[in-house]
Amino acid sequence: KAGVTQTPRYLIKTRGQQVTLSCSPISGHRSVSWYQQTPGQGLQFLFEYFSETQRNKGNFPGRFSGRQFSNSRSEMNVSTLELGDSALYLCASSLGSRSHNQYQEPQHFGDGTRLSIL
Amino acid sequence: GQQLNQSPQSMFIQEGEDVSMNCTSSSIFNTWLWYKQEPGEGPVLLIALYKAGELTSNGRLTAQFGITRKDSFLNISASIPSDVGIYFCAGYNAGNNRKLIWGLGTSLAVNP
Questions:
Q1: What's the pLDDT tens digit per position in B51-76?
Q2: What digits encode the pLDDT tens for the residues A4-58?
Q3: What DSSP state is assigned to residue A25?
Q4: Residue A15 DSSP label
Q5: Backbone φ, ψ for residue A83 (5° rounding)
Q6: B41 to chain A: which residues are within 8 Å by CB?
Q7: How many of the other CB atoms lie within 10 Å of CB of A10?
Q8: Cβ contacts of B55 within 8 Å, gap of 6 or more
Q9: What are the strands of the beta sheet with B55-58, ordered from one edge?
């Protein structure tokens, strides 16, 4: 069973540019969450999408946005990049089905996109 | 946002030693998860705990859901060099919140 796939693995951008990262969840998973990981800060939650709708959001500025497609694939976009946006961006998927206790589902992660801002 | 208190922050041990780390919260949780992250990779789920008092093993790893529902523990027995990595605890609290709450991780180094 294929895991969570994130593309690209590495990306270098300059300040002021924008970037789009892609995530393909595990087949059958409908919930996709995005995290920013930086040294010393752990995993910071960005947002979660389920059935093409954002159902949870972290405390990030509006420059960070996302969307989910009908096949559950998700993209996140960061506009007007800043030096502080350099981080590992992780995507995680889970079933998210209403037949399960959504509070208990483990999330399964991709290997991330390493974004460096020059 | 809310974070779990995970300790110790880092550990440097000799191969063969046992390791213990823990995670605490000020609020009640109904799920505890333990992940391991190696360099260049995303976190990988090690153990999931769903009931207070539950003790679950995965090979040399054993984790427990604390009776108070405010803490969890992870033990690694007879450590080996491939245990190196960062171990994260995470959980869902008992409130109406779908966000997975994370600790800051325990960095483990093993001296062969």
A1: 999 999 999 999 999 999 999 999 99
A2: 999 999 999 999 999 999 999 999 999 999 999 998 778 999 999 999 999 889 9
A3: P
A4: T
A5: -55, -35
A6: 111-112
A7: 9
A8: B62, B63, B64, B65
A9: B5-7, B19-24, B71-76, B61-65, B55-58
pLDDT in tens, chain B (112 residues): 678 999 999 999 999 999 999 999 999 998 999 999 999 899 999 999 999 999 999 999 999 999 999 999 999 999 999 999 999 999 988 775 577 899 999 999 999 9
CA proximity to A61, closest of A41, A91, A81, A86: A81
Angle formed at CA B70 by CA A37 and CA B102, multiple of 5 degrees: 5
The whole-number pLDDT of residue A80 equals 97
What is the separation, in whole angstroms, between the first and last Cα of chain B? Answer: 38
Strand B10-14 to B106-111 pairing: parallel
* Tokens of residue A31, six digits: 């919930």
Rounded to whole angstroms, what are the CA distances from A91 to A48, A74, A99, A103? 10, 9, 23, 18
Amino acid sitting at position A108: H
Overall residue count recorded for chain A in this entry: 118
In angstroms, the separation between the Cα of residue B98 and the nearest Cα of chain A is: 6
CA pair distance A36, A6, nearest whole angstrom: 14
Judging contacts by C-beta atoms under 8 Å, the chain A residues touching residue B97 are: 103
Q: Which helix (H) or strand (E) element contains residue A91?
A: strand A87-94
Facing residues of A21 across strands? Answer: A76
> Which of B1, B30, B43 minimises the CB distance to A104?
B30
